[in-house]
Amino acid sequence: MKNIFILCLGLFTVNSAFGQDANTVNPMDTTFLVNGVCEMCQNTIETSLQIDGVESAFWNVETKELKVSFDASAVSFDEIQKAVLDSGYDTEFQTAAEEDYEKVHECCKYREPHIVEQHK
Amino acid sequence: MRFLVLVGLLFVSSWSYAQISGHVYGMENGKKTPLIGASVHWKGTEISTQTDSTGVYTIAKPQGVNYLVVQFIGYSSEAKSILSRTGMVDFTLSEDGGVLSETEVIGKSNATSVDLKSAQLTFKLDKKELRKAACCNLSESFETNASLDVNYADAVSGTKQIEMLGQAGKFALIQRENVPYARGINASLGFHFIPGPFVESIQLTKGLSSVINGFESLTGQINVEFEKPDGDTDFFFNAYGNQGSRVEGNVGFSTPLSENIATTLLVHYSDIPIAQDNNGDGFADMPTDNLFNIFNKYRYFINDEWGGQIGFNYTVDERNGGQLEDIYDGVQPWIFQQKNERLEVFGKNGFAPTNHQHRSLGLIYNFSQQSQKSIYGLRQLEAQQQSAYFNAIFQDHLGSEEHKIKTGVSYHFDRISEKLDSIGGGNLYNQTRDESVPGFFAEYSFEPSLLFTFVGGVRVDYHNLFGWFVTPRAYVKYMPAEETTFRLGGGRGQRTANILTETQSSLASSRNMQVNTLDPISPEIGWNAGFSFAQIFAWSGWKGTFTTDVFYTWFEQKLITDYDGIPNAFALYYTKGSESISFLTQLDVSPVEALDVRLAYKYLHAVDAFASGKLTAYQIPSHRAFLNAGYAFPMGFTLDATLNWFGERRLPGTNSLPETFGVVNSSPSYFTLNSQLNKSFKGGWEVYIGAENLLDFRVENPIVGAQNPWGPNFDTQQVYGPIFGRMFYLGVNYVL
Are the C-beta atoms of B642 and B626 separated by less than 8 Å? Predict the structure, then answer.
């Protein structure tokens, strides 16, 4: 378990910069909480938002805040949240479906107290 | 032209409620079956519910509480971190494995938690708690726990003895992974031989423990779980050094060897190469110490039903203390020396039939050999012990899950020899005995709900020297609400005294040993009863636990060491009627998430039945208070501080020492302060720095007559507190 844990911490570096779309019509920012424990979670959460209309997504492992800049004319908040939930991560509003949570990597099972403890 | 919209808020309004629902399953025969009536609650709150007839729960989600806990009798509790206001989360509970099960720690937020399921008052100390006091062996592990106190046995040997419920540590059962460990001649040193970094968790039970574990415990049970193979490759490393010239290294390694076999290897080496004398009395404040300890365990699965573990432990230790030779030029120095060597082979087998989930059989065995050789001035003590232990425990339900029975047979064999010689003189004491004790036991538990438990147990043993004896024990737990717990319990305990090894600290004096009993090999028999109350509370963001307990111990027969009856001697004899009352009240609070505070007060009234009448027991302070605070800063820093206050205690032997030696009847009260700062780094590294005895309190004259140890008034029993002053230490941990 712990060697995977190292993987969690080490291999994945912050990648929050996505392509800038010059033609955004209705730019918006939103911040909401997403549960998670490590930088591997960060990678999964942020990658899940590589969808049309999302300009940038940044998730903070300490505060669990996900900051999303998006084009409201191209993508809705519901679609953004659905993308996060589909990647297996709970948001502050809604839990991910069991089958999606199952897909989350063993060392990132953020609902399990012992995993939370390991990442403290 | 970017503007912030609180999309979130709008979104929330479409949900007029906040609730979580889901299924609770139990794992049976590898199949998930819905659990009906499982209890579901938010950790630290009163908000709870139960699963319905289809195993489904629905529970409102309060703000700021994120751990949902599910409990069901016969299954391990499970908690999940849930941030969301709504949604479905399923739980799958695995069966409680019984004897061989590993300890579960619910939620993990409290480093020390009271085991709610247990009918006895049991505290669990996990890694987080153990890290609060980094040095060095098991005795330091209880530095942040008020239930148990650790004192020096004398002022030269560095031997520490524990006190629980106002009685010596020998009346507590000290187990390593459910196998009796510190028994017989190892009773006073067992703590010294358990390196802190080996320890994964500790369960501390106050009062009597289950009859399954034997008849010996009376005041408590300490079970120590070592680091164990968990199916993955793990590695840890610890290095430590302090101002007292102690250096220490610990290495642990776990790995699977095949699909069914995994191993853990733990190695400890510590050295105190230089003896220091800071108080100028010519005696080493602490002896030099050289300790090597290796522990190797294999866990295996034969098939789905049979599994087990086997391992060995080898310990060798040598300590040297007493007068520093260079100071006493030309005069023979008074020296202390102790060598210990212990080898132990142990194993467990568990059988859990897959077609009967409640049924299991546990077989525990252990063989050990220990030799001890000590020199106190001109007296030399040699002790040997060979022990064999076997315990078979069968567990089943009686009709329904509410009624459980554990029953089985056990066998103990001990060959213990104790010999005391005067160097250059003759033999002073020589006894060898064989103890052979077969026994059987049964324990019935009635758990109609999570809120009520009754456990009644009895064992009948036959001792080859003392004959048949019966050990009854019973406990009741009642929870009028989920946050409130009452416990009541009591029963009998018995052990055989080893008069030399247990009182050997008395040899660090000019006193003669007088064995005032016809039969030095006798049982110590006591009865213990206790009551406790625990209340979990949460108001306005403050979470905490309030615990209070009262225990009463009474001895039918106890070995007394009397320093005051005869001048220049210590007398050993057995009497009836020694008793102690212990009252502890403790408050654990977390005013904010990162801060844990523990405040405790302990009252002890211990009376021993001396030949001259019932008098206050030696070295037991009547009043004791304790404050511990731990704060977790950002960036991986944690700071922990413990302030101890010890009240006056009666000192031994003051009647028989001349007043010119400045001897007082009781010790002054005093404070000690310990503190430690930890910093953890990503990648598994942790560095800690700390100080013991920051206030630099020292016992002024720990050794009476230190100038003339060969004279008639030499005594080291008066030590009631630290000898070494303020001591800084530094250490590093690495966990892969």
Answer: yes
